[in-house]
Write a structure and sequence with these properties.
The chain is an alpha+beta fold. It is built from 12 helices and 19 strands. It has a domain of 151 residues: D-Amino Acid Oxidase, subunit A, domain 2 (D-Amino Acid Oxidase, Chain A, domain 2, 2-Layer Sandwich). The N terminus is likely disordered.
Length: 466
C-alpha cells in the first residue's frame, strides 16, 4: 500500500542552542534544526508522515530518524519484508545526522587497528576489519539508490600528522594495515601532500587510506528518508517517546499524540539519548560536543594558493582531532571539539579556537568570513567502540549507537545489523560489538564531565606541547 504523501512537518519550536542530553528529559518536540550548512543547502526536507495523533499498533518501532534508524527501516523492508514505524522527536535526522562533517571513513568507533589487536587479539581484529570493509561497500551501494543524491566525493582519506613526533606511529600503523590486514595504505610525505593533495601548513606527513568519501550530510539523511518511505516504512516526526514500558509481549511507547504499541523496539538515538528513555541505555554514552564551521566560497586565487587538489576527507592526528575538507562549492569545512556542557556551547571562545585551528592549517585564510557555525553531540561510548546489541534476550529491544564521531559510514551497516537481529537473523554476528552491551559509566557517572575537563587539558599538552 502506498503512503499518502504529506508536507514535511513544520517546526513548532525554535532551535535550542543550549540543549544538553545529559540533563534534558527529551530532545523536545518539533524543534527547528540547528543552523548547519547542510540544512541551509539541502532544499526543503522530503515529506514525512507527520506526528503521531492517535494510538497505533505496529510491528517494529524505531526511535530516532537519523542514519541508523532510517537504515534499519530500509533494511527491515528490503531484506526481511518488515515495514517499520520510525518515531522522531523533532524533524527527520535532527540530531547527529545533520550536524556532522559529512566524512565517511573505513572505521567504526575511535580505536585504531593496533588497538583492536591489543583489546581482542589478531583474529578478532581481522574479522572487525572485514566488517567495516563490508560496511563501506554497503554504504557505496546504498547511496547509488535513485532517492539518494548526496554529492559524494569518493577517493580515500588522508590521516595527516600535525607534528613530526607522530610520524613513527603513523608509519607503524600503515605497515600493520598492509601486512596484517591486507589493506593497502601508504605513507605520504609533506612534499607530496602539498603537491598532490593540499597545502596544509601543519602537515608533516600522512597515511593515505583508499576508502573515504565526503557527502552532503542532510541530503544523505533525506535520501534515506525517501528510500525508507518508498519501501513502506512510516516516519512520524514531532513525536518524542516520553516513556517506554514493556507490558506482556509488547512495548508501549508514549508520545504526545498517542501511544504506539510495538512488538519490537529499536533505539537509534546516539548522542541525543535521554537518560530517562530506557534503563538499558541509561548512562551508556558520553555525549561530547563537536563544533563545525564553513567558510565563504574561496576565490580561485585562494584555492590556487592552498593547492586544494583533493576533495577527500582530511583528518589530523590530534586526540581531539580536526576533520576538514573542501566542499563542492569551494568552501572549506572544519570541525573539532567544543564545549563540555550545553550551557557553555554558545561561548564564543569555542568558535574562536576552531577558527584558529583553521588558520594554523591555512594561514592565508586568516580573517576569512565564516558563513556557517554550529555544534552537535557525538555519541562516545566508555570503551570508544560502538554497539549493535540486544541487551536482554527476554525482550525484543535492540540498540545501535556509540560511533564516537565515525558514524556517517558505519551507521548504514549498523542499521542493517540491527534489522537482522530484529528479524531473528543475527545468530552469526559474533564480534564483540554485537555480543556485549555498551559499558556503563557506573559510579563515575556524576563525575564524567569533571573527568572530561581534566582529559581535555591532558590531550592539549600531549598534542601540542609534550
Amino acid at each position: 500500500m502506498e503512503h499518502q504523501l504529506t508536507r514535511p512537518t513544520a517546526a513548532a519550536q525554535p532551535f535550542d542552542p543550549a540543549y544538553d542530553p545529559v540533563h534534558a528529559a527529551n530532545p523536545g518536540a518539533g524543534k527547528n534544526y540547528a543552523p548547519t550548512y547542510w540544512i541551509a543547502t539541502a532544499e526543503t526536507p522530503p515529506e514525512d508522515d507527520g506526528p503521531v495523533n492517535h494510538d497505533i499498533d505496529v510491528d517494529v518501532a524505531i526511535i530516532g530518524s537519523g542514519y541508523t534508524g532510517l537504515s534499519c527501516a530500509i533494511h527491515l523492508a528490503r531484506e526481511h519484508g518488515i515495514k517499520a514505524t520510525v518515531l522522531e522527536a523533532n524533524g527527520v535526522a535532527w540530531g547527529c545526522s545533520t550536524r556532522n562533517g559529512g566524512q565517511a571513513q573505513i572505521s567504526a568507533g575511535r580505536l585504531k587497528r593496533s588497538q583492536w589487536i591489543e583489546r581482542w587479539g589478531v583474529d578478532v581484529a581481522k574479522k572487525m576489519h572485514k566488517e567495516v570493509a563490508e560496511a563501506f561497500d554497503l554504504f557505496r551501494d546504498l547511496i547509488k539508490s535513485p532517492e539518494i543524491d548526496c554529492d559524494p566525493q569518493d577517493g580515500g582519506h588522508l590521516y595527516i600528522a600535525h607534528r613530526d613526533k607522530v610520524m613513527p606511529s603513523l608509519e607503524k600503523e600503515s605497515r600493520l594495515l598492509n601486512e596484517v590486514f591486507g589493506y593497502a595504505t601508504r605513507v605520504v610525505g609533506r612534499d607530496e601532500i602539498h603537491r598532490d593533495f593540499v597545502r596544509d601548513a601543519e602537515a608533516k606527513g600522512a597515511m593515505y587510506e583508499p576508502d573515504g568519501m565526503g557527502v552532503h550530510a542532510a541530503k544523505l539523511a533525506f535520501g534515506y528518508l525517501k528510500l525508507a518511505r518508498r519501501l513502506g516504512a512510516k516516519v512520524h516526526t514531532a513525536s518524542p517517546v516520553l516513556g517506554c514500558e514493556h507490558k506482556g509481549d509488547a512495548y508501549l511507547l508514549r508520545t504526545p499524540g498517542g501511544t504506539v504499541r510495538a512488538r519490537a523496539v529499536c533505539i537509534a538515538t546516539a548522542g541525543y539519548t535521554s537518560p530517562g528513555l530506557h534503563d538499558l541505555t541509561k548512562h551508556r554514552l558520553m555525549p561530547i560536543l563537536s563544533n563545525s564551521i564553513v567558510t565563504r566560497p574561496l576565490s580561485s586565487s585562494e584555492q590556487d594558493a592552498l593547492n586544494f587538489q583533493t576533495r577527500i576527507p582530511l583528518t589530523d592526528t590530534r586526540t581531539l582531532r580536526h576533520y576538514y575538507r573542501m566542499l563542492p562549492d569551494g568552501r572549506v569545512q572544519i570541525g573539532s571539539r567544543s564545549a563540555i556542557t550545553g550551557r557553555d556551547a554558545v561561548n564564543s571562545r569555542h568558535l574562536d579556537r576552531l577558527v584558529e585551528g583553521l588558520y594554523r592549517k591555512f594561514p592565508i585564510l586568516r580573517g576569512i568570513e565564516v558563513d556557517y557555525s554550529w555544534w552537535g553531540w557525538v555519541d562516545v561510548s566508555h570503551d570508544m567502540m560502538p554497539r549493535v546489541f540486544r541487551p536482554d534476550h527476554n525482550q525484543q529491544l535492540f540498540y545501535a549507537m556509540g560511533y564516537g564521531g565515525n558514524g556517517v559510514m558505519y551507521s548504514a551497516q549498523a542499521g542493517r545489523r540491527m534489522a537482522q537481529m530484529v528479524a531473528g537473523k543475527g545468530g552469526a554476528l559474533d564480534l564483540p560489538i554485537f555480543t556485549s552491551p555498551l559499558p556503563s559509566h557506573g559510579l563515575l557517572t556524576p563525575f564524567r564531565r569533571l573527568g572530561q575537563w581534566g582529559m581535555y587539558r591532558w590531550y592539549y599538552l600531549k598534542d601540542e606541547i609534550l
